[in-house]
Design a protein that fits this description.
mainly beta; 102 residues; 9-stranded mixed sheet; 9 strands; single chain
Length: 102
């Protein structure tokens, strides 16, 4: 019932607010991605790929999102062709990591 465990389902989006149905998927993004409040639970994960030749922004809306390995929170910049993983660690609390992420 969990789907194909060998494939990470792709969801192609422009500017987009993550939805509960994005859990376990990767977002092929061409615009700003927003991590919203009250949607995800601990252990759920979303991967974002910047499918553009320029930087893009990953923003938050009423959640705390830590840059992995730091106490830094807030919006992040994902470089061209960069990849980021967003992990929900508690209610409205996330950690983000990845290549090309600042």
């Amino acid at each position: 019932s969990a789907g194909n465990l060998r494939t990470i389902v792709q969801n192609s989006q422009g500017t987009y607010t993550l939805a509960a149905t994005d859990n376990g998927k990767h977002i092929l993004a061409t615009g700003t991605i927003t991590v919203p409040a009250s949607i995800f639970t601990a252990g759920q994960v979303i991967t974002i790929f910047n499918n553009t030749a320029s930087n893009m922004t990953i923003t938050t809306s009423a959640v705390t999102c830590y840059l992995a390995g730091t106490v830094t929170t807030g919006a992040r910049t994902l470089a061209q062709r960069g990849i980021a993983t967003v992990l929900c660690v508690a209610a409205n609390t996330f950690v983000i990591s990845g290549g090309g992420l600042t």
